[in-house]
Amino acid sequence: MMTIKIQVHEDIRYTNDGNREHWLDIYFPQICPAVLPLVVYVHGGAWRTGDKAEFSHIAEGLIGAANNRLAVAVVNYTLSTRTEDSIRHPGHLNDVIKAVKFLVTDQDYPGRSIVDTRRIFLVGHSAGAHMTALMALAPQPAFQYLGNIRGVVGVGGIYNIPKLLKTNPDYSDFIDMAFVKGQHQADSPHYAAKVMLAAASHVRFLVVNSAGDELVGSDQATDFASQLVETGYRDVTLIVRDLGTHEGTLGRRELWEIVVGFIFN
């Protein structure tokens, strides 16, 4: 197997407000055989926890599994808190949209010259998968770069909030922090998928859930993938197998290879 040496550029500001939650890290192989597709990784954490620094192993794992053929950006976004003025959906999503817009349009960040901005792949885990799905299925009016998104990958994703709460009523603790009550259906990718967007018809979807996921049931993935197919999306891949626990899945080389195989299929 090829030895992978990686360079990382940390704390790149995708907005100029000085808020660490609006920073990202970008990873490249030191030896780049060509202009590289870019993975934008959006972490989970129930919309209230997580930091880009915790997910370097995913960026490095994906680049290693791709044998130097990928760049990876790991994005921070504003997290919800228990305060009354806390950010709620779509605030987190809008942050990620700003990060992708920055990566596509800005000319100054390190490694920009070797990023193929026409080949962006969004990879999200858990709450991050909720956001990556909505970026394709219900993009905000300000997001004019859907054509740059070639694929969306969701791992252990939350796609149907009403069903999640019915199955796990105690999850209302973090859902109530991150969403406005009464809008759960409208804020769910499962229901957004019912409206076919011609602008997104080119987007490929990979929906992954571990059979060993103790936090998010595989029905979230299977129902969502079925809804995509029924709506008319032509390239939808569903994988449900034992890839470990909800968090443990992220450290599995098997997952990295699945994602890389999807990107280069």
Automatic annotation (TrEMBL):
Cleavable signal peptide: none
SUPFAM superfamilies tied to this protein: alpha/beta-Hydrolases
Pfam families cross-referenced by the UniProt entry: BD-FAE
Domain BD-FAE-like: from-to ranges: 24-228
Gene Ontology MF: a single term: hydrolase activity
Alphabetically ordered keywords of this record: Hydrolase
Origin: domain of life: Eukaryota
Gene3D superfamilies the UniProt entry points to: alpha/beta hydrolase
PANTHER family associated with the record: AB HYDROLASE SUPERFAMILY PROTEIN C4A8.06C, KYNURENINE FORMAMIDASE
Name of the protein in its database record: BD-FAE-like domain-containing protein
Organism of this sequence: Coemansia guatemalensis
